Automatic annotation (TrEMBL):
The gene is Gatd3a_1. Gene3D superfamilies: 3.40.50.880. This is GAL3A protein. The lineage of its organism: Eukaryota, Metazoa, Chordata, Craniata, Vertebrata. It comes from the Eukaryota.
């Protein structure tokens, strides 16, 4: 297992205690290295031929830094290294795992694919970002409704997705969904 991140400046830095952006500037690779305890490489160096699969975590950083979804929605652009990584694994018929908001990367890069970000309606207030499913459909992809503890496998494209924090759920349910996504990716590898 190796960890990669793009060597780019973050769109913004958020003070998570207050919930507000700050004037501070940070680099995505440097911040990712902090979280990974330094065991990380520049995404530009990733070679799909050296790996059996790729998994993209989610989080608002994906929507701000790996693509511009947070600002542009379905009209977003995808970071060039993220795009080329996805394309390389897809072309090699190797599995791609995506969770939380990161399934929008596949929806943008692979028109016609199937992904899930949970539900397409805000069921019991648990899916406040349910409109993301509509945007995915507008990109020409099929959104598959799944519960937080489930994942969806697009067998034709070898893309496995789960909604994770796109659902307001207890952490153990989010953990279970991510676990099923990882298990399905490994089965396809």
């Amino acid at each position: 297992v190796k960890i990669f991140a793009p060597n780019i400046e973050q769109r913004d830095v958020v003070d998570h205690l207050k919930g507000n952006p700050t004037e501070e500037k940070r680099n995505v690779l440097v911040e990712s290295a902090r979280l990974a305890r330094g065991n990380i490489q520049d995404l530009a160096e990733l070679k799909a031929g050296e790996f059996d699969a790729v998994i993209f975590p989610g989080g608002f950083g994906v929507a701000k830094n790996l693509c511009s979804w947070a600002v542009d929605g379905k009209n977003c652009t995808v970071n060039e290294h993220v795009n080329s990584t996805l394309q390389a694994f897809h072309s090699a018929k190797k599995p791609i795992g995506l969770c939380c908001i990161s399934p929008v990367l596949a929806a943008k890069v692979f028109p016609g694919c199937e992904v899930t970000v949970g539900q397409d309606k805000n069921v019991d207030g648990r899916f406040p970002d349910a409109e993301t499913a509509s945007a995915i459909a507008e990109l020409g992809c099929k959104h598959i409704c799944k519960n937080v503890n489930e994942s969806h496998v697009d067998k034709a494209n070898k893309i496995v997705t789960t909604c994770a924090f796109m659902c307001k759920a207890p952490l153990h349910e989010i953990f279970d969904g991510i676990g099923t996504m990882v298990q399905e990716v490994l089965k396809l590898a």
